Amino acid sequence: MPETFLDSTELVLNMGPQHPSTHGVLRVILKLDGEKVMGTECVIGYLHRGVEKIGENRTYAMFNPYVDRMDYVAAVSNGLGYCLAVEQLLKVEAPPRAQVVRVILTELNRIASHLLWLGTHALDVGALTPLFYCMREREDVMNIYEKYCGARLTTHAFRIGGLIYETYQGFEQECLEFCDKLLPRIDEYEELLTANRIWQKRLVNVGVLTAEECKDYGVTGPMLRAAGVKWDLRKAQPYSGYETYDFDLPTRTNADSFDRYIVRLEEMRQSVRIIRQGVGRLEVGPVMAKVPKVIKPPIGEAYVSIEAPKGELGYYIVSDGSTQPYRVRVRPPSFVNLQSLDKMCRGGLVADVVAIIGTIDIVLGEVDR
Amino acid sequence: MRDFLRKVFLADLFEGLWVTLRAQHPKNIVTEQYPAARPKVAERYRGAPRLNINPENGETLCIACDLCALACPENLIVVGWERNPETKRKELTTFTYDTSRCMFCGLCEDACPVDALELTQDFELASYSREGQIFDRQMLEEGIHPTPYKH
C-alpha cells in the first residue's frame, strides 16, 4: 500500500458494473485517498454463461458456434483456436488452401479487434472522433465476413477440418482493396492522436507494467510486447503455416499505455503485410480435410494456443472417446491480462483507472465466459 | 526550437482538427440511412429461416429426416411427421423453429440433405411477443413480411 498523502480516511468507491468505460460489465472497487488510488479489486462474473460447461453437453461440431461468443470482437480467432485443438485431437490437418484462408480471416479479425480497441480506448480517454473512423474501417472487415460466411460478428466461419464455405467471387480483390485503404487510414489515426498533447498526457507513463511483472502475471499479447519482450505465438509456436509468412514483431520499451497504443497500430500494419502475402498464396484446392461425419476423437487431450488479438488464447480439450468433450478449458487472454489491473492502478489517479482498463483491451464475454 | 513553436501554435491539435475537417466532405460520408434506405445484405447472409417448397408442384422439399433438429446446438427445431400408409414414406406435418433461441450458426442448413431448410437474407426479425418468435410451418414456407417503412 502506498503511503497516504492526505490525512484522511480511505474512501471506497464502487465503479461499474454498468459503467461505460469498463467495456462491459466489469465492477471495480476502488480504494481511494482523495483522488489517488490506493488499491483496486475486480469483481467479475456478471456475464458468466458457463460456456465451458455447455461444451461438455454438446458435440464437437455443435460447440463451435459457442466459442465465437466468448471474445465476440475476435470471433474468428476463437473459432480458429477451437478448430485447431479438435483437429489436433483428431490428428487431421486442414488443407493448404483452407489454412491460407484461415490466416487471412484471422488477420482481418486482428485488425477489426484492434480498430475497435482503438476507437473505444480513445473514447475513454476523451477523443471522440477516432471511434467513428475506426468503426468505418471495421465495417469493411465486417462486410468481408458477411459475404464470406453470412454473419458479421459471431461468424462461425471455420469448421473442424477446414472450411465449409469456399471464398466468394472477388474475395481476394476486396481483401487487397481493404489493405490499400487501411494503411493511409492508420496514418490518419496517428495524425489525430500520436502527437496530440492531451493524448500523450493521458497515456505516457500511465499503467506501467514492466517485462518482469508481465511475466509474473502471465500477461501476453500487445501488453507484453510493449514491455520489450519479443513474444508472439505466431513466431514462437507457429500454427496454420505462420512460419512461412514474413512479418515483424513490433516492440517498445517503456511498457506504458502509450507504447501499447503504438504497438497495436504497428501490429495492424503487420497484419496488412500478412494478408497481402496470404492473398498471393491462394491456390485452387480442397478446403476441407477428411473428417468423419460424427466426430469422435480418440481418448486423449490437446492444448492448442494461438495468438489472438489480445494475447495467448488457449483451448485445452480432454476427450473420453465419446462424441462430446469431457472437458473444455479456455485460457482467455483478457482474463489473465485483467489481473494486472490492480498493480497498474496503484498510486495513480481515478482518471487513469479508466485509461488503464482501456489499455488492457478486455472483452467481458471472454473474462467471464 | 521547432518543437517549442509547434507547442506554442498548437500544431498538434490543428493537425488533428484538419483530419476531422477533411472527413466532413460529402463524398466521405458513409452513414447508411437505414429504415429509409434498406441495406442489401450478402447472398450468404444467415437470417430468418425458410422452408423451401418445390416451385413446380408447391409441395415441401423437406423429407422429415430430422437431421436439422439433431444438428441444432440449441434443440430449437421440432419436426413433426407421419408415415403415409400408401407410399410408406415419411411426410412432414408440422415444423417449428424457435428463432428466439436461435443463434444463426447455420448448422441446420449445413445438415439438410435436400436444401429444404435455408437461412435467408431477411434480417428484420422483431416481433411484439415471444410467441411471434416461434415460426411454424406456414410462416417458414411463406417467409416473414416486415412492415415497410414509410418515409
Describe this structure in words.
The complex is a heterodimer of chains A (369) and B (151). Chain A has 15 helices and eight strands. In chain A, helix 4 (96-125) runs antiparallel to helix 5 (129-149) and helix 5 (129-149) packs antiparallel against helix 6 (171-193). Chain A has 369 residues and is α+β, with helices and mostly antiparallel strands. The model of chain A has no long low-confidence stretch (mean pLDDT 87). Chain A is 49% helix and 13% strand. Chain A has a single domain (48-338), classed as Cytochrome-c3 Hydrogenase, chain B. Chain A has a three-stranded antiparallel sheet with strand order 1-2-3. A three-stranded antiparallel sheet of chain A has the order 6-7-8. Chain A has a two-stranded antiparallel ribbon with strand order 4-5. In chain A, strand 2 and strand 3 form a beta hairpin. Chain A is globular and about 70 Å long. By secondary structure, chain B is of the alpha+beta class. Chain B folds into two domains: 1-30, no CATH class; 49-142, Alpha-Beta Plaits, CATH 3.30.70. Chain B is built from five helices and five strands, in the order H-H-E-H-E-E-H-E-E-H. Chain B has helices spanning 2-8, 11-22, 67-71, 107-111, 137-142, and strands at 49-51, 77-83, 90-98, 117-119, 134-135. Classes of the chains: A alpha+beta (369), B alpha+beta (151). Chain A binds chain B through residues 58, 61-66, 69, 129, 133, 136, 139, 143, 146-151, 154, 156, 164-165, 168, 188, 191-193, 195-197, and chain B through 7, 11-13, 15-16, 18-20, 23, 30, 41-46, 71-73, 103-107, 110, 119.
